[in-house]
Write a structure and sequence with these properties.
The chain has three helices and four strands. The protein has 96 residues and is an alpha+beta fold. The protein has one domain: Transcriptional coactivator/pterin dehydratase (Gyrase A, domain 2, 2-Layer Sandwich). The chain has a four-stranded antiparallel β-sheet. The protein starts with 7 loop residues before the first helix and ends with a helix.
Length: 96
């Protein structure tokens, strides 16, 4: 998958389109809140399968029902189309 570095305009458009994501430094960030740990962990497990397929992995943490996500493409020095692809996958999985 091609990984082009997103421009500031592309990032602004993305965060306006996709609820809850924000640009923080050189990354996209979002906090998901689930009913409990089991739901949060199920989400993370489902996302993990897509991360492996994409060969792209988030910086994330989990405490009980809260999952904090940070997406950036380190070798490109910022947010790429790979990050927005993964964020869109997360949005779809979180809505199920």
């Amino acid at each position: 998958m091609e990984r082009h570095l997103l421009t500031a305009a592309e990032l602004d458009a993305y965060v306006k389109e996709v609820k809850g994501w924000s640009v923080v430094g050189d990354a996209l960030e979002k906090t998901y809140r689930f009913a409990d740990f089991v739901h949060a962990f199920a989400f993370m497990s489902a996302v993990a399968m897509h991360c492996e397929r994409l060969n792209h992995h988030p910086e994330w943490s989990n405490v009980y029902g809260v999952v904090k996500i940070r997406l950036t493409t380190h070798d490109r020095g910022g947010v790429t189309s790979l990050d927005t692809t993964l964020a869109s996958v997360m949005e779809e999985l979180a809505s199920d």
